[in-house]
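To close the chapter, one final illustration. This time we ask the reader to focus less on the individual chains and more on the assembly as a whole: which components sit near each other, and how the overall shape emerges from the parts.
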Amino acid sequence: MNLLEDFSPGLFVMQAVILIILIFLLGKFAWKPILNALNEREEGIADALKAAENAKIEMAQLEASNEAAAQEARAQRDEMLKEAREIKEKMISDAAEQAQEKADKIIANAQEAIEAEKKAALADIKSQVAELSVEIAEKVTRKELSEKDAQLALIDKMLTEANI
Amino acid sequence: MFKAYLTTAFFGLILLVSSTLQAQQDDHLEDHLSDHEVHVTDAEEEKVNTPSEIKSYIEHHLKDVHDFHLFSYTNNANERVHVGFPLPVIVWTTDGLKVFMSSEFHHDDAAEVQVQKGEATLVKYHSKIYEMEAGAQSINFDEEHHPINAHKVLDFSITKSVFGLLLIGLLLVFLFAGLAKQYKKKQIPTGFGRVLEPLVIYVRDEIARPNIGEEKHKKYMPYLLTVFFLIWIANLLGLTPLGFNITGQIAVTTCLALFTFFIVQFSGNKDYWKHIFWMPDVPVLMKIALIPIEVLGMFTKPFSLLIRLFANITAGHFVVMSLIALMITLKAQFGAVGSTGLSVFLTLFISVIELLVAFLQAFIFTMLSALFIGMAVAEHDHAEHHGTEEEGVDEVRERFV
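The assembled structure is written out below.
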């Protein structure tokens, strides 16, 4: 079989024409839309996967931020509780102090009053005692009035020495 | 669903037509003698029984023919009946373009029937149409059986191969335009589209992308996909009893290879031409020595493509037909049943292999086309593979072998 003799130029031309027409026809109406659709689908799948991955990451982030917020809230609460406790203690101690102060003041006042009363009472007693003594002395020494002044001085002197 | 009905109807119609044809022939043979579909010749002359007749029959099959011949049988009146239909003959003669049906040759292939078309007298000899020289009464041959007083004409006939190509073209448009239409409505195709989609993805992901590259492969996809499916379906049609031998025609494979050749040359970038005419990283003397080798390589690559496809398909057809012929050639040794059994078994075996070869050859042709295109458009990075240049060359050589 002679290959060159078998080569048919007509068939060659027909094949070339058919092939060119087919490439353009199929390229326009089949391959292009098919490949585009395949690409689109693949991109869609890739995008969906990426979106899912992103959502997962976002979820994790959200969870982490939630956790942080909760932590913060807890800390805040603790802080507030602590503050409240402190205030409470301070108030108690302040009140106690104030009470103490007041009590001290009252006591001091009372003491002062007592002191004053005592002094007044003493002075009163002293004068009464003096009068009484004078009276007693008068009674005792009625007979000797002439020496009344000397006797009074004596009594005063004796009272001062006595000093109740 | 509608398409499935259409397909069934189409094949049903074909079956119906062929069976009616046969029925007509059986019933009113005499009435239809002049019919184009049926041609009756002397039975003894046409029977294929001896080894030399088998050989010429196979050779005839491997050639491109001008009519669509399905089968022949001998009827009760001991006449040979050929069933098939004629195809249009379109030839450019010295008297201009001539168009007529191949039935005018009356199945003659030995230059006996002369067809007068205007000034030109045409004869058909060994599946080629010749125009007789002016004044010649009958055709004469030299010792090598080449006609001496006739010359070949430019033959643009719708031969069996062209008819097959048109059929495949229609089938491809029907199938893949259908698939493309499906994507308008849904993301995932249904029905037969589910078979076609992975094939398209296969060509893209296994052939185009790895060889040409991610960015550049898109431009060449229409060519690669068309060629892949064209060759594959042509190969598969060759295995059917319709008897197509499209990819076994040297003109067809030459055309395909030339397409690859031109696409490679036209997409070749600066690096590609530099590697041919001024190979980098080698001494100047080597550069000069490499030029003819590389230029030769430009042509041997597509040449290997055309020869590989042609030889594989031709060999396949030859082997299958020879094995079928064992039925006749081994009848004397094994008896009718033995030879038929052996023939059926071996033919079945080889046919299964041919089924694989049909895909493989389409794959290899497309794969190598993509590889050549990839080499022409590749961006070389010399600084990087400076040290491994030799290894790289060896690898590439190995892949070719």
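The radius of gyration of chain A is 62 Å. The CA atoms of residues 33 and 151 of chain A lie 150 Å apart. With these observations in hand, you are ready for the problems at the end of the chapter.
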